[in-house]
Amino acid sequence: MENSSAASTFMTDSLELELGTEWCKPPFFSCAVDDKEGKNFSGESHLCSGALKRLILNLDPLPTNFEEDTVEIFGIHWVTETALVNSSRELFHLFRQQLYNLETLLQANCDFGKISTLHCKADNIRQQCVLFLHYIKVFIFRYLKVQNGESHVPVHPYEALEDQLPSALVDELRGLLLYIGRLSDLPSVNIGPFVNQNHTKLFPPSWHLLHLHLDIHWLVLEILHMLGEKLKQVIFGHQFMNLAGDNLTNVSLFEEQCENLLCDLISLSLNRYDKVRPSESLMNHHCPCLCIKELWVLLIHLLDHRSKWSFSESFWNWLNKLLKTLLEKSSDQRRPSVPVNQSRDPFGFSWWIITHVASFYQFDRHGVPDEMRQIESNWKFIEELLKKSISIQDGILEEQLRMYLHCCLTLCDFWEPNVTVVTILWEYYSKNLNSSFSISWLPLKGLSNIVKSPSSMLEMVKKCCFDKQDHNLYKSSSSFTIFLCILAKVVKKAMKNNGPHPWKQVKGRIYSKFHQKRMEELTEVGLQNFFSLFLLLAAVAEVEDVASHVLDLLSFLKPVFLTSHRALVWKGQMAFLLMYAQKNLDIGVLAEKFSQAFREKAKEFLVSKSDEVIQRQTCWTLLSIYIDGVQEVFETSYCLYPSHEKLLNDGFSMLLPACQESQLRTVLNFLQAVMARIRSMHQHLCQELQRDNVDLTVQSSLSAKERHLAAIASALWRHFFTFLKSQRMSQAVPPSQLADAAADFTLLAMDMPGTAPSDLQPQPVISIIQLFGWDDIIWPQVVARYLSHFLQNSTLCETVSNSGYVSFQALTIRSWIRCVLQMYIKNLSGPDDLFIEKNLEQVVEKEYMKQLTELTRLLFKLPEVKSIFSKAHSEYLPIPEDPKKALILFLEAVGVTYGNLQTLSDKSAMVTKSLEYLGEILKYIKPYLGKKTSSAGLQLTYGMMGILVKSWAQIFATSKAQKLLFRIIDCLLLPHTVLQQEKELPAPMLTAIQKSLPLYLQGMCIVCCQSQNPNAYLNQLLGNVIEQYIGRFLPASPYASDLGQHPVLLALRNSATTPPILSLKKCIVQVIRKSYFEYKGSSPPPRLASILAFILQLFQGTATDTSEVELLLPGIFKCLVLVSEPQVKRLATENLQYMVKACQARSGAEPATQLTSVFRQFIQDYGMKYDYQVYSILETVAILDQQVVIHLISTLTQSLKDSERKWGLGRNSAQREAYSKLLSHLGQVGQDEMQKLENDTI
């Protein structure tokens, strides 16, 4: 809707007066407009004030001005109604005097200190001059009377003067114009103002002089126009003659002034054009200020108005006549009375000036842009200009041509369509189709010479069809591309206005230029331009007709040409296929031919040898064009028809086995995109079919579309799934791609189960999950990613749950456990590079760890997993980000859950379910236990299995699960290499066992204690494990600081349950006695000192039982008596002292019976042969506990006597002395025994 100023175009005088009088101030040119106001012209301008509208409508120029009896002009009061008749000469003299005064101000030094004064003086002079010229307009409109020349009645002297006024005005105006001269002769003016502290703009005198000249030139035209309108006759001047020698008239003066003014405006524009770059021509305006722009608009309106109501020439005719003088080289041609300066580039300037001036036609009489306004075109001159521009004998430069065509494109926006312009341009481009249309110093930003893809070809064509083009078109597009923009715009507008006839004209012109010879002449660049041209024609007109013609033209190409340019031909054909899809047309014809070519290339790719690199690369280039294009066809098609199935032929079955990894990624990405599109369309169809009250016709159509989708889906199963299934254990397909594609097939099977092959029926979803999610031979990377997709889709999980397959959660948990345990395995099938070995922080690929973390998060949301944690009273436990920690929590939760169960049936079911979770768990960890070891993998394996043995000890205590426990112990702790004592275990394995052994020992002890049936084999296994690893982890030195960190000792310290720890300690004591103290001969076992230190740590770290002392004390005595090594003796003595103290503490005042019997047996075994050592040992004991030794006195005395009898030498003084020394430590009882010995006789 137009604004108020535009809407008031046809208001009457009375109505305008009601709007107020502010606009009735005398208008004048001003460019002092604030940019923030967003106005095109100043409020005081001739346009915005309504002065132009009043002039054209022949209304009072200033209805509210000059209404008093007198008027002050140039400081003198004059009678308003008679001043111009009586004193016209004097007034014009005063006017020229004011002009002179203003010109003298130019000589003053215009600095900031004087600018305010100079601005006020100059502005005052200008306002007086403008006021006088407006007074002339008002006088002509109100007071000038038309005299009847045929009347013979005597006239009043005033009337006689009034009758001469029009001629006098013509003479005075002519004199005034001669006095001020031409605009182009004025010195250059700095338009910029001074701004004072009050933000007031102050202009120098030169600015006021320039704008006063503009006012004079325009107001003279207004006055001359009003004279003609008022008197309706030609007015002759008396003082001047024109250049042809004829008397001067108001008409000739008006035309002369118009010509001079246009010449001046052109000259000003020429000065600006010489400083403009071609690339910025349409961004840089030709007007130095708004006032010049306003003057152009005023001239357009006035001249076009006069041409409609008289025989005057229109604005375009005036401008064309002057521009032709720039283009004509011959000097004898007729030239205007005022010559126009020559330009360095007359063609470029003509395009530039016409384009900018054409944009001024959008302004209405009030200076307001009006897009609906009918714009007068100038096509006839443009056609001539275009012919001359492109027919330069020396050839036109691309940089010039771009600028010309950019201007032409802009004119096509402004004016009605013109098919002739397209025809002229096509004549040029049809001859230069093989040109790249490039500028050496300016690379194209938006388009390369040869486009990269079919979609980019279409994108370029779409850009050419935009209604509004980029202002930077010069730099971003070639001249040929700009020609395509012109072609698109003209054809679209012409067809909209005139139907199909213009299109037939253009089509005939373009088609006629292509024949077999011309097609064979095309280079690669020419072929690219060929496709761009016809794609654009297809986009704006008849797609099928253009595509059919293109196929016919391509058949002209020879095989030799096709070999070198086949990729471009395929891109072009695919671009047409995409256009068909986007316009929802049947692609059958194009798809049939194109898919056959694809099949042939896929076959060629399959049979080509791997060393034929160039041939394979050439084939792949074409194949990738087809794959990318078909993907986009599916993604952009509104509906999928049977013809889409043709694009998915058996070429893919031949292509897939021949692809390398990067190529497979491309093909599988294509597959996923197509499946996603099919599923999306299927879901949409299902929603449509489920609606109520669906019409039978609509229902039939939807069913047909569903059948089409099913056929396409079957093609995918047929040509892709078979290959994916065969690659489950191969390294050829990237795991992520394989998992993603398999997941998409699973979703497709869920949505459209009937399309799946027969070997997956009757439950295709379950069958695929078994193949890619639950099969133990599949890569863990594939399984983790696949199951993440599976668990993420709630609909899919619900489908599987409702299928009656009850074990799907347990199988999913089993696969997750396998994925965690096998995180360090790189290759399941080959021996090379079996493990990922980096530092432990980066030991797993980030992508796999991220996927495993996601799988863990999703798995913990399964109802079965939630139930386990809930029953273990840890349902609020946050899910750890580390999958290993999550697995530990899960295993512990299963163990706790089992322990909390009460009924036998629940426990039995839980054991079965738990074993289902584990599956063939030893197979999962087997790769870590081979010859090639992985420290990270071994630590993970032994650690997790240790936690499993401990936390599931109650489960393993059942007969169902014990077999698995036996296999775990045999496989991990007692493999064949461990039993070979002479062989050293690999360091990574030994480290892993050392860290996790306490878990195994604690778990095994719990199993032994809680086993449903006492199992001798299990006890034997426990003893074997302790026997093997006590020695393996003993330090060489008994005083090593890490002896306390021995895993067997840690197993005792970290155990939280009392019965198992007692059982474990008893087993350890039995193993030590058997392995280290029951040796024969005098040679003790190696590292005896270390085992004594171990025993000491064992008793110091746990509560001592008398039965344990009873088992170990004989061995200690043996070491004290038979081993002479100082370390052994010292440690054995420490052990003896600790045991005696411990037994003393447990038994109180009375010595333990078992301890006394042990000592008595010790005396009997060693008393006769090692009497001195026995006495020495008992002295040590006596110091700690006299009662123990006192109870042994009788045994000692008898041993002494038996020794003396045996030797038959009477009393053994030395032995008796040693025995007496022992007795001396026993108090009175010892003294009494010594007295008895003295009194005894042998």
From TrEMBL:
Keywords: Chromatin regulator, Chromosome, DNA damage, DNA repair, Nucleus. Residues 26-730 form the Protein MMS22-like N-terminal domain. Residues 851-1226 form the MMS22-like C-terminal domain. One of its GO terms (biological process) is protein localization to chromatin. The keyword Oxidoreductase does not apply. The keyword Nucleus applies. GO terms for cellular component: cytosol; FACT complex; MCM complex; nuclear replication fork; site of double-strand break. Its main location: nucleus. InterPro entries: MMS22-like, MMS22L_C, MMS22L_N. It is found in: Chromosome; Nucleus. Signal peptide: none annotated. Coiled coil: none annotated. GO terms for molecular function: single-stranded DNA binding. Component of the MMS22L-TONSL complex, a complex that promotes homologous recombination-mediated repair of double-strand breaks (DSBs) at stalled or collapsed replication forks. The MMS22L-TONSL complex is required to maintain genome integrity during DNA replication. It mediates the assembly of RAD51 filaments on single-stranded DNA (ssDNA): the MMS22L-TONSL complex is recruited to DSBs following histone replacement by histone chaperones and eviction of the replication protein A complex (RPA/RP-A) from DSBs. Belongs to the MMS22 family. MMS22L subfamily. This is Protein MMS22-like. It comes from Otolemur garnettii (Small-eared galago).
